[in-house]
């Protein structure tokens, strides 16, 4: 009996190993420490003379520069030493104006020929590569104010539809106040509004002229609004983080009004902060007619030309939360635009408002909330307080040519970057309430470089011990097993790189366990071969029987472990998932190398000729 594989099996094994080697190679090219210069908003421009001065400044400070690369909206300066990153960032920030954002970054160094094959290194987790940590605080007062303004707008629409006259609307801390001409109008309004808004407590107010109705939110309603604001912001942040393409991010609630965001591998806080912290939203309003009362109108400047203003209706047609999808595009003249799709309710409201106002102008109002720190005197001491500064500007004012439906476009944007950012924010969802960064920091590996080295050392020591044991115990067959073990590690790294899996310190533990388990199958096979030799079978028969009869035991044992790993992945979070991923992939690669690769090597060594003695 001769042990041979058909040619197609050898070619298949060779193909898998070559592909694995190619996609594992990028991990030999670690990312370079770098400093990235970008613009806070709009198009990025940095002259060659200014860039040369920056390079001279870094050189005079003793900071070695590997290379300088111009990218579409930034400049990337690669450094030779990671310890110089923070110092280089500080020097560049001092040399540039506030219009530029200087941030730490890690620049990939994968060769272009590997990038052309879509090969990239493994993503490292926050505990190995570091990243950015944000602690955001939701403005609960603003959440209440926004809800009250929305309810007040809806109430005004109801009163106008029922032709109930009112004089003025005021928004308080937790209340809405309406003024009427007389008590009869107030009574009609209360009967109309109260069934639709049961979360308010209603009380009549006597005025010197007319009658007033005060509606105050109940404590339960306030708690529900604030809780909804945090949960909605949490969902929106997760969508925005997904748009950033960060692997294994952490976005979770902390306390009653805070949200923690951790982005592994991201050291450039500029892009992350700009997208995550953006509190922009849109409002679609009709331009006011000349005879519209001032109490029902508001004037706003144009965003790209503050000297120009337009007067809009107080009532809002729809807001950005009605957008179901948004994509950047260009019009027929090559100017940037955003193509918008509305949900069913948004499309109905837009159609209802535009079909009766053809020929009238409609404005797109851009609203952005910014957190501002101010120093005030309190009890004779200076105290820093944080307030919200809201900027409103018109980005588009166009004539309604026909009734609009679920799809339309926004023009008048300054740059493709602004169009892309606006589309991303609308696509990921609007925030229910403004947020500000209570804490922001770029962090290194949380477990320290020494512990990371120990994790890598554990893999090396584990691999060395297994190699020595297999050589001593199984001699030539041990060499086959060790080669398969090395190939198993290459295939595991390649699989994680191809799938975009994130490697964490628990993941390294999974690799160590995989290396120990990888030789289990070979041990079962080799011990079975030795047993068959003791039973009197020939060398070729013992090899065949060893692989055939150990197959079921190997598969049973590994399938059980694989099921456990899948359960850990499905119910675990964070470190548990990282461990489960490497363990699952390691089981699959070890089955391939133990059952097929070692068999192929044994067949090539012994299968084509008679064998009198096996060194096993």
TrEMBL record:
Record's keyword terms, sorted: Cell membrane, Membrane, Protein transport, Translocation, Transmembrane, Transmembrane helix, Transport
Topology of the protein relative to the lipid bilayer = Multi-pass membrane protein
Q: Which segments constitute the Protein translocase subunit SecDF P1 domain?
A: 230-287
Q: Name one GO molecular function term.
A: protein-transporting ATPase activity
SecDF P1 head subdomain domain span: 300-433
* Domain SecD export protein N-terminal TM span(s) in chain numbering: 2-104
Q: Where in the cell does this protein reside?
A: Cell membrane
- Give the transmembrane ranges: 455-472, 479-501, 507-529, 550-572, 578-597
Principal localisation: membrane
Record's SUPFAM superfamilies?
A: Multidrug efflux transporter AcrB transmembrane domain (SSF82866)
- Domain Protein export membrane protein SecD/SecF C-terminal, by residue range, is 438-601
A GO biological process of this protein is: protein targeting
Q: Which GO terms describe its cellular component?
A: plasma membrane
Which PANTHER family has this protein been placed in?
Answer: PROTEIN TRANSLOCASE SUBUNIT SECD, PROTEIN-EXPORT MEMBRANE PROTEIN SEC
| Family to which this protein belongs | Belongs to the SecD/SecF family. SecD subfamily.
Oligomeric state and partners?
A: Forms a complex with SecF. Part of the essential Sec protein translocation apparatus which comprises SecA, SecYEG and auxiliary proteins SecDF-YajC and YidC.
Listed NCBIfam families: 2A0604s01 (TIGR00916), secD (TIGR01129)
Q: What does this protein do?
A: Part of the Sec protein translocase complex. Interacts with the SecYEG preprotein conducting channel. SecDF uses the proton motive force (PMF) to complete protein translocation after the ATP-dependent function of SecA.
For this entry, the protein name equals Protein translocase subunit SecD
